């Protein structure tokens, strides 16, 4: 039985307000708590179920190849499961993220996009496709 009760990814953002607006307001992560200290602020955002995915360099390169076409991720990449990867990618792009790769169907049957978000985080947005459907052959977002 695991002693771990919660996974918290802590990100230091030079532009705190921009990062907070993007991840809370644009991506839609609900605010759980916010605190301030004499020297700064922190906001804790809910992100659903947390998992820690450990990949060796070969698999990380394979995922980059599938999602983007070449190696782009650094040591950490944050992945968010969303109901509609196409709509979420467009919303985040309009909210200031840079789209590195549009939503693409993966060999593991999900629709994944890759973005660069505030605070230097590389993001994967993914939608599990379940049964194959006709809409996965639609052209990717431009």
From TrEMBL:
UniProt-recorded Gene Ontology molecular function terms: lyase activity
Transferase among keywords: no
Keywords annotated in UniProt: Lyase
InterPro entries: Glyas_Bleomycin-R_OHBP_Dase (IPR029068), Glyas_Fos-R_dOase_dom (IPR004360), VOC_core (IPR037523)
Keyword tRNA processing recorded: no
Chain segments annotated as coiled-coil in the UniProt record: none
Ranges for domain VOC: 5-128
Protein name, as recorded: Putative enzyme related to lactoylglutathione lyase
């Amino acid at each position: 039985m695991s002693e771990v009760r919660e996974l918290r990814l802590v990100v230091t953002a030079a532009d705190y307000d921009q990062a907070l607006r993007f991840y809370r307001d644009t991506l839609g992560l609900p605010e759980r708590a916010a605190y301030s200290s004499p020297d700064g602020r922190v906001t804790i955002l809910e992100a659903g179920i947390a998992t820690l995915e450990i990949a060796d360099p070969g698999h990380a390169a394979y995922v980059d190849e599938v999602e983007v076409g070449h190696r782009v991720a650094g040591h950490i990449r944050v992945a968010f499961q969303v109901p509609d990867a196409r709509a979420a990618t467009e919303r985040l792009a309009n909210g200031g993220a840079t789209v590195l790769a549009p939503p693409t169907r993966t060999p593991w049957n999900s629709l994944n996009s890759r973005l660069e978000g505030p605070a230097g985080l590389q993001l994967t947005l993914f939608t599990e496709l379940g049964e194959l459907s006709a809409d996965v052959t639609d052209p990717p977002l431009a």
